[in-house]
Design goal:
The chain contains 8 helices and 13 strands. The chain is of the alpha+beta class and 300 residues long. Bound molecules: aspartic acid.
């Protein structure tokens, strides 16, 4: 069996990797390690794009998106546009385990959280309110200040996507985010959508994304890269292929490729990562007791 491995997006993904690696090395399942790792980021008020302290949308409300997937069974669940629930990755797991459904949204997801015994919380911190006040769109109508499609101006976004391989050789993944800063109320990105922000299959590999979700959804990014691994590509080649799809879609629409990145992990424990030009994407990898930050290859 391979050594356990865990990979997560962005430097703050290091929190998830450290926590998750310890769990994997203690023999925990990939899904538990990925969710508890992601939860440590959801709990960190200093991460302004995930969970507690996440950036608010255009009308000042924090709406969170998340999904989970188990590579052994292809079990999956997601929640989108959820308010007042901090641990949305764990909530997505409940959707997977406690309902016959795959995705719950908005008020329905919040009521389900209550039913499942989740605590309702404020997700704002004094810092996140101050940040929102400083940077919010000011001219009139909601959403009006967003740049044209695919060219969102704000860098205030970043999902924690976590992929894990456990001691039994099984894969799992999690995405959790507050999404794009100042997003339209009700806007949903790639992160809760299976096949877009995340896809995991023990028979092929695990893939996940971060960045401007519309561009990831447009090409079903994570599905593309997992299918590339199934066809024999390495995780690195698969990530580059998915970024090439994002780039090609931008060309067809006459826009510059937005900031998008993918990570991948295969059943042998090999990892990969790639991003669009200028995205400056760093990610964390943990294996054999060590956690390290890497810089992804920009693919033009
Ligand atoms: N993918 C997220 C979204 O579009 C944001 C991010 O990862 O930066 O909501």
């Amino acid at each position: 069996m391979p050594d356990p491995v865990i990979i997560a997006t962005w430097p703050f993904g290091m929190t998830a990797v450290r926590k998750g690696l310890a769990l994997l090395e203690a023999g925990k399942a990939a899904l538990d390690a990925a969710i508890l790792g992601a939860q440590a980021v959801e709990d960190d008020p200093e991460v302004g794009s995930v969970g507690y302290g996440g950036i608010a949308n255009a009308v000042g409300v924090v709406q969170l998106d998340a999904c989970v997937m188990d590579g052994k069974t292809l079990g999956c669940g997601g929640v989108a546009g959820v308010e007042n629930v901090r641990h949305v990755a764990a909530l997505a797991r409940r959707v997977m385990e406690e309902t016959p459904h795959v995705l719950l949204v908005g008020e329905g997801a919040r009521l389900f959280a209550l039913e499942q015994g989740f605590r309702l919380d404020t997700l704002h911190t004094p810092e996140s309110i101050a940040e929102w006040e400083k940077s919010r769109p000011r001219a009139g109508r909601e959403g009006r200040d967003l740049a044209p499609e695919g060219t969102f101006p704000s860098d205030s976004h970043d999902t924690v996507t976590v992929l894990a391989l456990d001691q039994t050789g099984s894969l799992a993944g999690v995405c959790t985010t507050s999404g794009l800063a100042h997003k339209r109320h009700g806007r949903v990105g790639d992160s809760p959508l299976i096949g877009a922000g995340l896809y995991v299959d023990d028979h092929a590999g695990a893939g996940g994304g971060t960045g401007v979700g519309e561009e990831i959804v447009r090409v079903c990014g994570s599905m593309v890269l997992v299918e590339a691994m199934r066809a024999g590509k390495s995780p690195q080649e698969a990530c580059e292929l998915a970024i090439a799809r994002v780039n090609a879609a931008a060309v067809r629409r006459g826009v510059h490729p937005a900031r998008v990145a993918f990570i991948a992990l295969d059943p042998k424990g090999r990892t990969g990562a790639a991003c669009t030009k200028g995205a400056k994407f760093e990610y964390a990898v943990g294996r054999k007791g060590k956690s390290e930050l890497h810089t992804a290859r920009e693919t033009g």
